[in-house]
Amino acid sequence: MEEVTRLTVSSLLLAGLYAVMAYGLGLIYGVLRVVNLAHAGMIMGGAYLTWVLHGRLGIDPYLSIPVVMGAFFVFGVVLYKGLVRFLPRGAAGGGQSLLLLFGVWLLMRNAAYLLFSGNDQAVRTGYSTQGLRLLGVSVSVNRVAVFVIALIALGALHFFLTRTYLGKAIRAVAQNPDSCLLVGIDVERVYALTFGIGSALGGLAGLLLSTIFAFNPSSGAVELLKSFVVVVLGGLGSVVGIALGALVLAFAESFSILVLPSFLTAAVGFVLLVIVLVLRPGGLFGQRVLG
Amino acid sequence: MLEIDDIEVYYGDAQAIFGLSLEVGEGEVVTLVGSNGAGKTTTLRAVAGIRAPRSGDIRFEGESLLKIPPHERAERGIALVPEGRELWPQMSVRENLELGAFGKRARGRVEESLGQVMSLFPRLEERADQLAGSLSGGEQQMCAIGRALMSKPRLLMFDEPSLGLAPILVRQVFETVRHLHADEGLTILLVEQNLRKALESADRGYVIETGRIKTEGPSKELLQDETIRSAYLGI
Question: What is the 3 state secondary structure string of B170-215?
Fold first, then answer.
């Protein structure tokens, strides 16, 4: 029983991180119809930027959130305006944008190898080893902090998308870009903004990850794949769908250790992905796009 | 108010519009009628900026629109009710309407405009929190007209507003067009396949055939024209 409680708490905390990284990928896909493979690079880059800010300048990882998100927002906007803008979109252009963004990811990864070597790094703060008790289970302070920050980020995003003109414009562009032009929405600007926000979420996911796990320049790949799983499970419908998808993945992974050897944990998500694609190709919660 | 001057429009290599010219004066209701595929929608899309002409000019209040990006044309007072409504199906009716007032000029008056649209179409008020995609065809058409009105246009263009609607709703759509012209003072460019209804609501008409203007004149004369009567009205 205590084992079940422990796994429940850790899945719940993990789900927050999963939701943040998946939302970055899902938002860009939902609005631009582009699968951003460079998302893996954003996650890895976010972790390294946090590590540099902490190691060189002594900035606490959680205080560097605005810097990391700002940096990756700008990076995303530049990437959109400099490259992605020129590519065909949707089903017809899928191959080209996949290749291009895969190339961007490779560049980022190799740049990180050059700059930081391939050694594993971790962000260690004074409170890294501290724990607290939650529902009678001991968990690290960092995991709780990551969860709380993820919740705040997702809540803020939800508010932005449903309550502000610009956020509503982003959802409208996802649903029908031509009619957006008719009412005076600068669709190109919305695309750039969305790519920036999605990238900033990738950077944030990397920051959060760096406080819990060790990372190296190849990090981000597994996270990218998990983001896919969450997006397929939860759909592009809403923050709530993504959160549910993240919960399903996190619980499935955590509880699999009761019946599977631990080296198979990473495969659980993909088994889940295949099952969902076969049984419910529209995702667990339907096919709404940023509704 | 609107002058289309000898435009040529292409889809890739295929030419859709061949030197079309058309004029809409301030306060007029002008209709562009013709059969399916004649180039009516393309003409409106050129004015809205979604499909740029390869040559010729489009002027609004004396100023060329060609250099003005499509999203800024709403700000100038041009609105289009597109064919097939083109709403945002997974957003509420209220959100669809609010986004109609996205432009700077319109946004400051969004509450006032919402009230006007809701009193014009009380049905939209009842449905305000429903998803636009769940509305009936007639309600979607009201929502699309409402969205265009939210941008506070001076020139309102309709693309086949009666398409796919039941006869009673068709009548209602044309009554709305007349009301917007007579009571709100809007200038209207109406594209229709329903030639008789369109000409009955308009001051002047243009008949378009395979991308060229075939005939033009006051609506009353066009309705009496023998060739038009036999070709389009089956009389």
Answer: HHHHHHHHHHHHHCCCCEEEEEECCHHHHHHHCCEEEEEECCEEEE
Count of CB atoms situated within 10 Å of the CB of A281? 9
B65: amino acid identity, one letter: L
A181 Cα to chain B: minimum distance (Å): 5
Closest CA relative to residue A201, chosen from A139, A256, A158: A158
Contact A136, A6 (CB under 8 A): no
Contact between chains at B147 and A288 (C-beta distance less than 8 A): no
Residue B100: per-residue pLDDT: 96
Domain boundaries, chain B: 86-152
Is this prediction's ipTM beyond 0.85?
yes
Q: Is B76 left (phi over 0), alpha (psi -120 to 50) or beta?
A: alpha
For residue A180, the chain B residue with the least C-alpha distance is B71
Overall pTM surpassing 0.80 (yes/no): yes
Average pLDDT over residues A212-230: 94
pLDDT reading at B86 higher than 90: yes
pLDDT digits (tens, 9 = 90+) for B149-175: 999 999 999 999 998 899 999 999 999
